[in-house]
Amino acid sequence: MALLEVNNLDVRFALRGGDVRALRDVCFSLDRGERLGIVGESGAGKSVAAFSLLNLIAKPGYIAGGSITFDGEELSGMKDRGLRRIRGNRISMIFQDPMMTLNPVLSIGEQMVECLKAHRRISTREARAISLHKLNQVQIPSPETRLDQYPHELSGGMRQRVIIAIALLLDPDIIVADEPTTALDVTIQAEIMDLLLELCEKHNVGLVLITHDLGVVSQVTQRMLVMYAGRVIEQGPTREIINDPQHPYTQGLINALPQMATPGSRLNQIPGSMPSLSNLPSGCAFHPRCGFVNDANGEPRKACLDKVPGFVDSGNCRVACHMVAELVNQQQRDSREEIL
């Protein structure tokens, strides 16, 4: 049994014009020590999926259906008192902006001690000793000095290291990192991701990494989900998806990487933009932007326009695409004919 299992997760936002489904039928699992990446454009539902794990969705958002099971416990319907045992203790979260996460009027040490004493019955001296050890783990220079400094006195990279140290304070089983390097420059991004990967491997901590950076995902994670308009449209081993993407949207994301363009030419891009969740296209939500919506005769595939695609197995990956389903079915028919 996986440490974390998410099945048919449905998240909605209650608006005046009716409920808007931000996530629909999202399924994935995470084993102890495993690293999972969730990628997609802005508005795909990545952060909503991350926040849903600990029911941190602000109203008018709510979990409308599905289950989130952590170590045998159901989290989706758990009361706040029960969730407090899990949040920060067994599942920690790293948010996008460290300056918004840290309290500007409390020193780093005060915030770390407060976090520890909220979950454990220990003295302030013991809590400071643990905090100092964690700051050492994330390679912050002069950690004794940093404990008594305030967030504004640290650089962006330092603040993000402090956030990682706080996430590790209570030795969690899972860290959920929501675009943890967004506000940092490229060299600091690489340092932070290397540090996070090293700590997860050393302490056997599961990682759910939310990002739009396929380069980071390819280097850090073992499995990945690709999301579009609130649905998972491809999932499988990271290396297999990066090297041989099956869904046209995944292919578009990889082709849009700078290194995929000819030097001196315009970068590749996916035409159009993410649809509004309150006005999704019929059938496959990606079909208005898809270069493969037409069949060999140049006619639009009726299924793409009318029917939401289900998952089909392609190699070790699962893909929600009518075109891939056609190809897989054809391959299966060819194989049966060869056997006969």
From TrEMBL:
It catalyses: a dipeptide(out) + ATP + H2O = a dipeptide(in) + ADP + phosphate + H(+). It holds the Pfam family oligo_HPY. Signal peptide: none annotated. It comes from the Bacteria. Keywords: ATP-binding, Cell membrane, Membrane, Nucleotide-binding, Transport. It is found in: Cell inner membrane. It is a peripheral membrane protein. Its EC number is 7.4.2.9. GO terms for molecular function: ATP binding; ATP hydrolysis activity. GO terms for biological process: peptide transport; transmembrane transport. One of its GO terms (cellular component) is plasma membrane. Residues 6-254 form the ABC transporter domain. Gene3D superfamilies: P-loop containing nucleotide triphosphate hydrolases. PANTHER family: DIPEPTIDE TRANSPORT ATP-BINDING PROTEIN DPPD, OLIGOPEPTIDE TRANSPORT ATP-BINDING PROTEIN APPD. Belongs to the ABC transporter superfamily. This is ABC-type dipeptide transporter. It comes from Onishia taeanensis.
